[in-house]
Specification:
The protein is α+β, with helices and mostly antiparallel strands and 357 residues long. It is built from eight helices and 15 strands. Helix 1 packs antiparallel against helix 2, helix 2 runs antiparallel to helix 3 and helix 5 crosses helix 8. It is globular, with a radius of gyration of 21 Å. The protein binds 2,5-anhydro-1,6-di-O-phosphono-D-glucitol and manganese (II) ion (2 copies).
């Protein structure tokens, strides 16, 4: 009989990888797992429970909120509040970060950035949706944490993961030592280890992009799409196109099968559509830990220094060779799209002011 390992057992076992860990991160992951199970229950019965459709509200990014966006947001905030290990929740659904101002939480070590429900426009049609989370360690040591504590680079993440509510429900996460996937067994209500040490194939044959935006794409992306669609037996082209419209669904499939997911800049989203803190960075951490690459077309996503909570970022993520190719074409055909190009140094910074005859 195969031995089942639950998420809870696995987390406790892995705590030994962090010699100074006191169990706070483990408890935080457990709190996220519990909230995910409640959201999963609601997503599963969405059609019955009158929670399909719009909530009638708009979030800070001007997007219509679905009832389940609002429900998921509340569930995660309340699980993280009662868990006591998190001092701030920064979420897609709230304009400002949410400080957890309880005596236990305000000195807690961790910050959670979260997209409570990704791909929520898919709910009404029964396609995969998910939750994405990024865990940071706060920088300040006491008192209420601040925005500076939240605005950390992706390389500073201590853990990241997603839960996909699909044909089965899975939690996939990393703490920087590889990526593991757990499938929810509804009969026992536990996430069980099903995909240990996930690796994304180095070369893939699936590309995922909203091609309806083609005319608005940078030239480098247009060239890549022509490359992907060209006939070449040696490199297994033309590639296959698959786009669910839920980043989690598309990235999860590509993680398992190999592929690239792209959301470039467009004329309506000149800085990209996806958000750095709770979409770009956590997915980048997972994919890199699985051996893949995550780029904004020019730079590693996790190296970007954030300046705003809801900052956007163009995303090219997945199999290493596919992301390398798009970076090559972006550099050649779209250098003006490099949003995070290091600023050119002034003469003063170069310390040669007055030094040129
Ligand atoms: P969210 O539902 O959290 O707002 O995110 C939706 C995102 C992403 O998951 C998806 O891939 C993308 O937006 C789809 O955008 P388009 O409809 O513009 O293709
Ligand atoms: Mn999203
Ligand atoms: Mn969302």
């Amino acid at each position: 009989m195969a031995v089942i390992k639950t998420l809870g057992q696995f987390i406790i076992e892995k705590q030994a990888d962090f010699p100074y860990a006191k169990g706070e991160l483990s408890r935080l992951l457990r709190d996220i797992g519990i909230a995910a199970k409640i959201v999963n229950r609601e997503v599963n019965k969405a059609g019955l429970a009158e929670i399909l459709g719009d909530a009638g509200t708009v979030n800070v990014q001007g997007e219509d909120q679905k009832k389940l966006d609002v429900f998921a947001n509340m569930q995660f905030i309340s699980a993280l509040t009662s868990g006591g290990e998190c001092c701030i929740v920064a979420t897609e659904e709230e304009d400002e970060f949410v400080p957890i101002d309880s005596p236990v939480s305000k000195n807690a070590k961790y910050i959670v950035c979260i997209d409570p429900l990704d791909g929520s426009s898919n709910i009404d049609v029964n396609a995969a949706v998910g939750t994405i989370f990024s865990i940071l360690r706060r920088k300040s040591v006491e008192g209420m944490a601040t925005l500076e504590d939240v605005l950390q680079k992706g390389t500073e993440q201590v853990a990241a993961g997603y839960v996909i509510y699909g044909s089965s429900t899975m939690m996939v996460y990393t703490t920087g030592k590889g990526v593991n996937g757990f499938t929810l067994d509804p009969s026992i209500g536990e996430f069980c280890l099903s995909h240990p040490d996930l690796k994304v194939p180095e070369e893939g044959y699936i590309y995922s992009i909203n091609e309806g935006n083609y005319v608005h794409f940078p030239e480098g992306v247009k060239k890549y799409l022509k490359y992907a669609q060209a006939e070449d037996a040696a490199t297994n082209r033309p590639y296959t196109s698959r786009y669910i419209g839920s980043m989690i669904g598309d990235v999860h499939r590509n993680l398992i099968k190999g592929g690239i997911y792209m959301y470039p800049t467009t004329s309506s989203s000149p800085k990209g559509k996806l958000r750095l803190m709770y979409e770009g960075n956590p997915m980048a951490f997972i994919i890199e830990q699985a051996g893949g690459t995550a780029s904004d077309g020019f730079n590693r996503i996790m190296d970007i220094v954030p300046t705003e909570l809801h900052q956007r970022v163009p995303v090219f993520i997945g199999s290493k060779k596919m992301v390398d190719k798009i970076e090559e074409l972006m550099k050649e055909y779209s250098p003006e799209n490099n949003l995070n190009a290091p600023a050119e140094k002034t003469l003063e910074q170069l310390n040669i002011v007055g030094g040129i005859d």
